[in-house]
Design brief:
Radius of gyration: 25 Å
Number of strands: 10
Mean pLDDT: 88
Distance between the termini: 61 Å
Helix content: 40-55%
Order of helices and strands: HHHHEHEEEEEEEEE
Low-confidence stretches: none
């Protein structure tokens, strides 16, 4: 009986030591990772504007999702226009899916023809929310045209001038156009006009989750 008790006690001591060792290792990794993220945040808020910009470009272009997210969070809400521009470019360079929302002006008289535009672009309209939705995928940046392309296409989606973002080839027998800027919630917003006529609707494209 004493041998059994001794064996059990020995096992429990060994198990506790191993568990503690695993926790120590995990805690060390967590601390190191937290330190990395803090360093990234400090670089993004560095007093030297060139250091801030370089940090933004490197972090948002990295393959580390946490660094990318941190750069987006800082850049899209920064008071520094160069950081905002770099953050937008980084989001576009990453490509992937985006969603554009179209919000009606309260005065619906002589409204721009958003319904036809959405129908042609296979978008949707929510009567309940009084909003239109259009999902799309962004492809690579084209150096010749200085724009980001529709995925698997040679036609342009966006072109930038400073931190302003312009829609380019949003036409399919009907032309939609807008010039957008960041709002205080990390969305690109602007007035969207169809065929250059009527009262524009508001377009909003979220750039951060």
């Amino acid at each position: 009986m004493r041998m059994v008790v001794a064996f059990v006690l020995s096992f429990l001591v060994s198990f506790t030591a191993n568990a503690q060792s695993v926790l120590d290792e995990l805690e060390a990794k967590i601390t190191a990772r937290a330190d990395e993220l803090l360093r990234a945040e400090k670089l993004l808020s560095h007093p030297d504007p060139n250091t801030r910009l370089a940090a933004m470009e490197q972090l948002i272009g990295s393959s580390d999702p946490a660094f990318v997210q941190k750069a987006k969070e800082v850049g899209l809400f920064s008071s520094d226009p160069r950081l905002r521009e770099a953050a937008i470019r980084g989001v576009f360079d990453a490509g992937g899916g985006f969603s554009a929302e179209f919000i009606l002006n309260r005065n619906k008289t002589d409204m721009t023809d958003i319904y036809t535009w959405l129908r042609n672009f296979k978008g949707s309209w929510s009567v309940e929310d009084n909003k239109g939705y259009f999902g799309f995928a962004l492809g690579r940046f084209d150096n010749d045209q200085q724009c980001w392309l529709w995925l698997n296409s040679r036609k342009c989606v966006f072109r930038m001038a400073g931190e302003k973002v312009m829609t380019v080839d949003w036409s399919f027998n009907i032309i939609g156009s807008s010039v957008m800027q960041l709002d205080d919630k990390g969305n690109l917003t602007g007035a969207f006009l169809v065929n250059g006529r009527g009262i524009p609707v508001i377009i909003r494209i979220p750039l951060i989750d």
